[in-house]
Structure formats: C-alpha cells, structure tokens
Design goal:
Nucleotidyltransferase, domain 5; Lambda Exonuclease, Chain A; 43% helix; alpha/beta; binds iron/sulfur cluster
Length: 498
C-alpha cells in the first residue's frame, strides 16, 4: 500500500493526477527554482525559531539521516516517558505518515502545532493539519488541541528577533475535527487511485493554480499553442469559457466573442499582426510631463523574517534605486544610483539604510520636474511607508509623491499596442517590442525577484558568488530598468513628433 504524507495528501487534494505524478512520474516535476528554494530555506529558519517558543524539547529527527523509522520509535518512546515537547514528532499507520512540527503537552492536554510562514490561516493549512490529526488519531495519539503557528504581521523587529512575539498561535481544533469525515474519505480515494497505478484522466483547470501553481503544468498544458487563450490579458474567466468550447489559440477566437479594448487589440495583433497607436492620447499624456525628468526605480526585499530594526515581516524594504535624469526630449543629462551597504542592515550604530536612501535621493532630485516610474503605485507605496517611518523626511517624500507620472499608462490603457507585447504591458514585454536590442537576457541578474533574493543573500551572509561582482550585477540590473524607461519615453516622444 502507498503511504500518504501531509504534502502528498494536499497534492492529491489539489489534483489526483498531481499526486500520481508525485509518486510514479517524479522525473516530470519542474526543477526547484531559486525563488522556491528561498521559500524552503525561510520555512526551515522559521521552523527553528518556532521551536524556541516551546523551548527545551527533544528533536525526533536529530542525527537520523532521514530514517523515519528511528523518529517514529523515538516519538513512541518519549511519549511513554512523558516528554513535554517533541519536535518533528513522527507517526505512521498503514497508508499514512505524519511528522509534526511541534508536539507539546500543557495543562494535561496534548497539543499538535504546525508552523506556517504565512500571516494568516489558509484553507490548505487546515487540510494538512486535518491530515496530521487523522494519522495521529489512527496511531493512538490523538491530540486534544491543534494549533497553527503563523507569522504575526504586526510584529516589529527590534534587535534580536523575539520568537514569542513573531508568531501567533491560532487554535484550529474545531475546523480540524469537522474535517475528519472528509479526510477519511479522501484518504481512501487517493490510496485506491494510487493502488490502481493508472494515470488519472484529468483535464487542466483552475485547480492547476490553486492552492499552488502545479509543478507539472509544462507537461499537462503542453497541448496549448503559442499565443493561446490563457495569454489573454486580464481574462477574468473568458479563457476558460473559450477552452470549454475547444478554442485554444487566440487566432481562433470568434469575431463576436465579447472582449474589452485591450483584449481586442491583443487578438487582432495575433490574427492580423496589427499594432495600435493612439497618438492623440499619448500626446495628451506626455504633455503633463515637466522638465527635468527623473526616471526612477526601486529594488526592495520583503523577507518573512525582518532583517532591519523597525520593520515588520514581509514589509517591502527598499535597498537600491536607479535614476536617469533627462530633458523633455529624453536626452540623458545624468545617471545617479544608490545601493545600500549590506553591513548597515545589521549595524545598529549606522544610520538606517532606508534613511540613507531617502537622503541620497533628496540630494539628487531637484524641487521640480516629473518623477517617471513604470507602475508608479509600487514606488509611491514604498515612499508612503518611508514617510511614516521617517517623520523628519515626510514633507520631502509627500512632495515627491505628487510629482509622479506612470509610464505604464499608455500600454496598460491600450493606447499603444504591438503584437510582440503579447498579454503583458510590463516593461519586460514592452521594451523588447520597442527596442529589441535592449534586453535583460545578457544580465546575470535579469529580474526583480532575483535582485531581491540576491541582496537578501548578501545581508544574511548566504551569498555563494563573489560580492563585488554581485554588487556590479545588482547596479547593472536596476540601471537597465530606468535606461529602458528612457528608451520607451524617447520612442513615444518621437511618435508624437511625427
Ligand atoms: S497541471 Fe493541472 S492537471 Fe496536471 S497534474 Fe497539475 S494540477 Fe493536475
């Protein structure tokens, strides 16, 4: 008989075919990305911190090199000895296996505690905790209470992280108990499916992205052509409506199918290779710009475990910016940039790196001129948060926020569309469509997620590469963003002039 762990149970709950692949076709699984690996690492770090909340426990997995039989035996032994707290307490029954983050005894009760790196309880957390309970009960060790220990998003770091304040303990016993009939039924169904050892006939659907983006999408979605209906911009269910009608390619979307303006441009782009440019609207938009122009971009980190005093879990903390200063024609006058010193994130005697960044920015942006960002709400949100954290710079930041224009607008509003942009109006799609020679492909750091995780690796001393080279790569990436904005702006100016 196959054995289900909580992750396999959650997998099967999302899609039985996914579970089948997990068990029988592991080679199909998408390799772990650096971003996923960073999440796993954070999970391990949080797990270790959570153990400190229930300190002095014994770890059933220590020095056992994945030999779960030893962990199961130790758990049994320690429970019979009355050990108060066991980390990775492990239970096994026919068809089921559970390794619990923390098993704790208090006030004559047995508590099962699962640690999660989110800031609230999600539906799938309840599913996996319900499965843990199901196995523990079958093994004869039903807990009296089940808790989820998730991150308290109100926690503000000051010096060393205080795990007792970082985590919030939420009692989910009631939901777990009411889920038991479902878990028993689903467990039996999944075991039966695995015993049959035949790949389930399951079509793709919304379940492929919920609760997780499935690791087998490249396999199951391979029948879809390039420019398919799932590329439709802001589809809001129209993609699935078309799929159910057997329409896969955007070039096959019927002419009378209801589409909004942006979607019409996209479908017409695929069908007729047609571009659309509304010069009058772009001209109106550009007429609001005032010289000098400051093309501006932030890079941020938002770690689950705050790294800087005064910040909360998952708070966006800017560490870098790039600024191209141009005249109204888009001629570059100057390029300025800032990259925080990683050491300043841990040295309490140094000025907060965010404050250093604001002061640096203040010294290079004059009192007039338009600040140009791509997707300006992001930059404005970061600045608003900085205004709250640094009251002394609030007046400057508020005046800066009022000067922003969003270069995304002509593209997201459908005033400018080229088929090469596909569904996206992001700078990574627009820039190559306008200036194919400008790409991010040759850059060692070519996207914001990688810039963020790289800087986080530097400050947490996990960087494997050479620090000076990495610093240069970070600066080059952020500079490419604002340089790209200038290229796009100049293209629009030329269009309007023509
Ligand atoms: S891609 Fe979709 S259908 Fe395929 S295994 Fe994953 S969830 Fe199931």
């Amino acid at each position: 008989m196959q054995t289900l762990s909580k992750s396999r149970f959650v997998s099967g709950n999302q899609c039985e075919k996914k579970l089948y692949f997990d068990v029988y076709r592991k080679e199909l699984r998408r390799p772990v990305s650096p971003e996923q690996q960073a999440l796993f690492d954070t999970g391990h770090q949080l797990g270790a911190l959570a153990q400190l909340v229930f300190g002095g426990g014994r770890d059933a997995t220590t020095d056992m090199n994945s030999k779960w039989g030893v962990a199961i035996e130790r758990t049994r032994q320690w429970l019979s000895e009355g050990v108060t707290t066991i980390y990775e307490a492990t239970f096994s029954v026919p068809g089921g296996f559970a390794a619990l983050d923390i098993l704790h005894h208090a006030d004559g009760e047995r508590w099962a505690i699962e640690v999660k790196s989110s800031t609230s309880v999600k539906e799938y957390h309840l599913t996996d905790a319900s499965f843990q309970y199901f196995v523990m009960k079958k093994a004869g060790f039903a807990p009296d209470k089940v808790f989820l220990m998730h991150i308290n998003n109100k926690y503000v770091k000051q010096e060393e992280i205080d795990p007792t304040l970082l985590f919030h303990l939420e009692d989910i016993t009631e939901q777990v108990l009411s889920n038991q009939p479902f878990v028993a039924q689903q467990h039996a169904a999944l075991i039966e499916m695995l015993s049959a050892a035949a790949e389930p006939q399951k079509d793709i659907g919304k379940h492929c992205g919920k609760p997780f983006s499935c690791d087998y999408m490249h396999h199951c979605w391979a029948h879809l052509p390039e420019n398919n209906i799932f590329d439709l911009s802001n589809a809001r269910g129209k993609d699935w409506l078309l799929y159910k009608q057997g329409i896969y390619s955007l070039s096959d979307v019927p002419d009378d199918f209801p589409l909004n303006h942006r979607q019409e441009l996209q479908v017409s782009g695929v069908k007729n290779n047609a571009q659309h440019i509304d010069v009058a609207k772009i001209k109106d938009f550009l007429s609001t710009f005032e010289a000098p122009l400051y093309f501006f971009d932030f890079e941020t980190i938002n770690p689950a475990l705050p790294v800087l005093d005064g910040t909360r879990p998952f708070e966006q903390v800017p560490f870098q910016y790039s600024l191209h200063i141009t005249d109204l024609a888009g001629n570059v006058i100057e390029h300025r940039e800032f990259l925080a010193s990683p050491e300043d994130f841990s040295d309490v005697n140094k000025t907060d790196p965010r404050l250093q960044l604001i002061r640096h920015l203040k010294s290079v942006v004059g009192e007039g001129g338009t600040m140009v960002a791509y997707n300006a709400p992001f930059e404005k949100t970061i600045l608003k948060a900085l205004a709250v954290s640094f009251e002394q710079e609030k007046a400057f930041i508020d005046s800066l926020i009022d000067r922003f224009a969003d270069l995304l607008t002509p593209f997201s509003s459908g005033w400018y569309y080229k088929p090469e942009m596909g569904a996206s109006a992001s700078i990574k799609s627009v820039l190559p469509a306008i200036a194919p020679e400008f790409s991010y492909k040759e850059l060692p750091i070519g996207n914001g997620g990688l810039a963020s995780s790289t800087f986080h690796d530097i400050i947490t001393k996990k960087l494997t590469g050479e620090k000076n080279t990495t610093t240069r790569d970070l600066l080059a990436y952020c500079e490419r963003d604002t340089e790209g904005m200038v290229v796009i702006y100049r293209h629009l100016v030329d269009l309007v002039r023509e």
